[in-house]
Amino acid sequence: MKKRYNTFGTAVTLATGAVFAALVAVATYLLAIPIPATTGYFNLGETIIYLASLVLGPFAGMVAGGGAAIADLLYPGGAVFAPATLVIKALEGLTVGLLNKKLLNKTRSFTLSASVSIIFGGLIMILGYFIYEITALGFPVGVALVEVPFNIVQMSVGLLIAVPIMYVVFRVFPQLKSQN
Asked: Which terminus of the chain is more solvent-facing, meaning fewer CB atoms within 10 Å of its CB: N or C?
């Protein structure tokens, strides 16, 4: 019998993913720090994507990632990033959730599997925006590189906040821990 990644069901996964997408949009938009060289911005929406992926699984994390594209549409000058954000953040959420499930089966350590998963998901985000800025937006490599350290910090802050909150959520809702 094939192991299911989500025993909640499709409707609940989509609904919780949509709620997390709204939270991502709010956290991304309200807590944005502009990066003038690229018109991008540092934000804390990453934390919510990671949390959704770790607690609810890969598909909820993927849907939650879409919330960042909504914030891009609202943020001044951010609309040029919205198509890339939709794909990059969805892939990031999906990757964190899938990799976390795989690693948990091998390590049984929530902290280790979550941290490694977030690092790989964050690398997708960092590389995704770098490639998009060079290819689609035509930024010189040096300009696109300006955003890389900000994206590394954004991933790191997301990791440092999401992992402890994951434990709080598992303590309050122990049934979610059994889903992992």
From this structure: N
